[in-house]
Amino acid sequence: MAIDIYELKLKTNLKNPCNIIIGDSREVLSRFPDQIFQCCITSPPYWGLRDYGIDGQIGAEQNVEDYIRNLVLVFREVRRTLKDNGTLWLNIGDSYTSGNRGWRDSDKKNAARAMSYRPPNPEGLKNKDLIGVPWKLAFALQADGWYLRSDIIWNKPNCQPESVKDRPTRSHEYVFLLSKSEKYYYDYEAIKEPGVNGSLKNRRTVWNINTRPFKEAHFAVFPPELAEISILAGSMQDSLVLDPFFGSGTVGQVSIETGRRCVGIELNKEYAEIAERRIKNSNPGFL
């Protein structure tokens, strides 16, 4: 069963294949010792795009710079708890200015897009500007001490249609590979991709991966294929993998399936319970 932060007993629970901890990542991670995770794979809430209904939720800040600062603090704790040769695989999407509207209607194709709040335009930006959130975050993490090693384009061949007629439909997000140190664990052999005449070649920086719905979740879910590439490259068998924004538990499920262990931290109890059921159903006896 998903456990509350105050019930956490690190010495016993971290031997389990998957541990789900309910709480704020910043507080939970502060209770962990240094250098215990081999890699971190995560997708934090995107700024100003969803209302998850939790007080203090990251992503609901009125100012994008506050959002960036909050994530820098989370990932500072991630860096402390990573092994010196550890890596962070960070999926983050972008957004447009709201036109200073304080709300957003639901979409016929995606009712979850409806929001009772929307932050104002960031200072210096105009209506309809693309904000550049992923790169703001990547550069802030770089300035905070991370090594920014690669920007990866997650191309979504089955992307959700948009009703816009004055720009291309957005069909990609970013995955940033960051490392704690100049030298780090990276198994390039494990993630080679098909080349010509049946050969294999080094993984490129554009990953074509379809989105995949998860019927219990009314929010965006992390594709297992994307998590698998990151886990195979960033860790070895029986490594401890971290996801501080666990959501529906994709990273935990893939960690178990590839012979790793995982700690998932989730602020929303409902989402933690969804992840627990998902992992139990796929891997009886692993929670």
What does this entry look like structurally?
It contains 7 helices and 11 strands. It has helices spanning 10-13, 25-29, 64-81, 133-143, 224-234, 250-257, 269-282; strands at 3-4, 18-22, 37-42, 82-92, 147-155, 172-179, 193-194, 200-201, 206-208, 240-243, 261-266. The radius of gyration is 19 Å and the shape is globular.
- The CATH architecture of the domain at 37-235 would be 3-Layer(aba) Sandwich
The helix/strand class is alpha/beta
Please describe the biggest sheet, giving its number of strands, its sense, and whether it closes into a barrel: 9 strands, mixed
Which range does the strand content fall in?
15-25%
Q: What's the overall geometry?
A: globular
CATH class of the domain at 37-235: Alpha Beta
Strand order of the largest sheet: 1-2-11-10-3-4-6-5-9
CATH superfamily of the domain at 37-235: Vaccinia Virus protein VP39
* CATH topology annotation of the domain at 37-235: Rossmann fold
Structure annotation, total helices: 7
Mind sketching the topology for me?
Layout: E1 3-4, H1 10-13, E2 18-22, H2 25-29, E3 37-42, H3 64-81, E4 82-92, H4 133-143, E5 147-155, E6 172-179, E7 193-194, E8 200-201, E9 206-208, H5 224-234, E10 240-243, H6 250-257, E11 261-266, H7 269-282
Helix pairs in contact: 3-4, 5-6
Brief characterization of the structure:
The protein has helices spanning 10-13, 25-29, 64-81, 133-143, 224-234, 250-257, 269-282, and strands spanning 3-4, 18-22, 37-42, 82-92, 147-155, 172-179, 193-194, 200-201, 206-208, 240-243, 261-266.
